[in-house]
Amino acid sequence: MINVIFVCLGNICRSPMAEALFRDLVKKEKLTNKIAVDSAATSSWQIGFPPHEGTLDILKKYNISSAGLVGRKLKKEDFWKFDYIIGMDESNIKNIYRITGKPNHPKIIRLLNLTKNKKDVPDPFYTGDFDETYRLVSAGCRALLKKIRSEQNL
To answer: What is the top-level taxon of the source organism (predicted)?
Structure first.
């Protein structure tokens, strides 16, 4: 099983959106028996909370299930469990390095580095623009699935 985790600051906006969207892509590609998906936060502010209402609304708009999404914090042990650790912005990447103790490890990737965009996914908790976040996360998730398919011969 290939394990993927998406990480943002609070695990209520960007990373659960990416988890749900990527899980939907994996299901549509009939890869659920090969790829498992999760999400986590670098902070402990929202542990146990459901995704932000804006994230839930955008997922509903695109008919993507939000079932089972709940905030949790990234743990050092997650480094060993996951094959791909995907941060939403440069700050998340630095925090992932700190939490895992694995700076600059190739399995830790900023999501939009996989696209031509190569910038941070802005946090809609602060911008209020869940549509922009969805567009960027969608492009990143598609690029990630392409990368995994190529690297893992799927």
So the answer is: Bacteria
Q: In this structure, how many other beta carbons lie within 10 angstroms of the beta carbon of residue 83?
A: 15
Secondary structure letter of residue 116 according to DSSP: S
Distance between CA 6 and CA 88 in Å, rounded? 8
- Delimit the domains of the chain by residue range: 2-152
Phi, psi torsion values for 45, nearest 5 degrees: -65, -35
Tokens 């939000």, residue located: 66
Contact between 6 and 82 (Cβ < 8 Å): no
Task: Name the CATH superfamily for 2-152.
Answer: Response regulator (3.40.50.2300)
Rg (CA), the chain: 14
pLDDT in tens, 46-60: 899 999 999 999 999
